[in-house]
Amino acid sequence: MRRFALIGQRAMSQGKLPLNDMAGAAGRMDVLVRALMAAMLTSHGIRHDTEVVLHLMGGPGPHRRIKFQGSRLKGVHAEERAVAGQIAKVLNYPIPARGQWVERSSGIFDGGGDVHHTLAEWTETTLVCLEADAPRLWQDGAVIPMSSTPHSTSSGEHGNFSISGIDIGFIVSDDKPLPESVPTTDLLKRSLGDGWLQGHMAIGICHFLLDEGIELNLPQA
Q1: Does residue 131 lie in a domain region?
Q2: Do residues 65 and 116 touch, judged by C-beta distance below 8 A?
Q3: What per-residue confidence (pLDDT) applies to 108?
Q4: pTM (global) more than 0.70
């Protein structure tokens, strides 16, 4: 399973989402939408071996989490406003209790809590925090293979997929650095290069490395 925890430090957690001002009044929800699309969607489909959790920390009220589960997801298309519309529907509901998940539509779950709750749920997952000044995510001397050998795959039909391979989770912030409340000391720090990339671009590179089966710089199981 490929997992992405997207941190929206100013993103609104409930109310009417202003679709015409997602960069301003919605608290940079536009950044999260682009990152969500990069994580969940291919050119013509959905990544069934991928899960994304949005962390909406900007209020009003308590923090909220929205989980997109690729193996169950329906009705999400590669258009920013349409994806934002799915989020807007969830924001109209009361925020569930911390640690509780409620399925609002196929593959879209609504929950209370914050990134600590998410990391506690990912107990069997290798957790990676992307930092520009950390060691590279790929092994020294790694090459791009001529034939793709993905690190994770899915098989089956909607709602009944079998996921195999690596279980890895990435922590990605919005346009601001990760908040101090995120326990980065407990995460594996890796980089995608010396420059700071936009979140959706970094996610695309992570998928490329996993899709091609490039040898990763991770602790041995």
Answers
A1: yes
A2: no
A3: 97
A4: yes
